[in-house]
Amino acid sequence: MKVTVDSGLCAAHGDCVIAAPDIFDLGDEDEVVRILNDSPEEKYRAQIEEAVRLCPVAALKIED
């Protein structure tokens, strides 16, 4: 699994950070989401899928 973010779309709502704090973080300077692990273990799939679903601007994607 590979996780990607379109930083041009990210509006820093932070829902992804709440859903999957081991995978996502918000930058301090620009408040754009950062992917802490872009190839996470399968055990994080449910959290990442929730983060993708909650993103109001559809900036996150999962590639298998």
Features:
4 strands; two-stranded antiparallel ribbon; single chain
Written overview of the protein:
The protein is an alpha+beta fold and 64 residues long. 23% of the residues lie in helices and 22% in strands. It is built from 2 helices and 4 strands. It has a two-stranded antiparallel ribbon. It has a two-stranded antiparallel ribbon with strand order 2-3. The model has no long low-confidence stretch (mean pLDDT 94).
Q: How much is the radius of gyration in Å?
A: 10 Å
Class inferred from helices and paired strands: alpha+beta
> Mean pLDDT, as a whole number?
94
Report the order of strands and helices: EHEEHE
Tally of helical runs: 2
Say how many strands there are.
4
**Oligomeric description of these chains:** single chain
CA-to-CA gap between the ends?
A: 5 Å
Task: State the major sheet.
Answer: 2 strands, antiparallel
Shape: globular
Cross-sheet strand order for the largest sheet: 1-4
The low-pLDDT segments are none
Helix content: 10-25%
Q: Give the amount of beta strand, in percent.
A: 15-25%
Summary of the model, kept short:
The protein is α+β, with helices and mostly antiparallel strands. Helix content is 23%, strand content 22%.
Helices and strands, with pairings:
Layout: E1 2-5, H1 15-19, E2 24-26, E3 33-35, H2 45-54, E4 60-63
Antiparallel strand pairs: 1-4, 2-3
